[in-house]
Design goal:
Structural class: alpha+beta
Strand content: 15-25%
Number of helices: 5
Order of helices and strands: HHEEHEHH
Shape: globular
Mean pLDDT: 78
C-alpha cells in the first residue's frame, strides 16, 4: 500500500500547482479522479481529488464535502499538524 501513496504523493512534482505540466505530474494527478476515504481519526468522509477540477465537481455535488487535492495533501503532510491541528484544518 505504501507504494501507491508514494506514487500519488511523489515529491518529484513541482511545488506550485499552477506550474505543473503533464510531464511532472504523477499518474494519479493526470487522471480526473475523486476517491472518497472514510477517516476513523476524523470520523468523517474525505474526498481525495486528483486535481482542482475534480475537487470543484465534488464541491458542486456536495457543498459540505471535505476535499483535498494531491497538492494540498502534500502541503498538509509537510506541516505535520498533529491530530488536533488536522481536525481544525478539516473543519474549516
Amino acid at each position: 500500500m505504501s507504494n501507491i501513496w508514494n506514487e500519488i504523493l511523489s515529491d518529484k512534482v513541482s511545488e506550485a500547482p499552477k506550474a505543473e505540466t503533464a510531464q511532472n505530474r504523477t499518474e494519479f494527478e493526470k487522471r480526473n479522479l475523486a476517491v472518497p476515504i472514510y477517516s476513523e481519526i476524523l470520523n468523517c468522509e474525505i474526498w481525495y481529488c486528483s486535481n482542482e477540477r475534480m475537487a470543484a465537481q465534488v464541491k458542486r455535488d456536495d457543498p459540505e464535502a471535505v476535499c483535498y487535492t494531491t497538492y494540498e495533501l502534500r502541503e498538509l503532510i509537510k506541516l505535520d499538524p498533529g491530530l488536533v491541528g488536522l481536525k481544525k484544518v478539516t473543519m474549516l
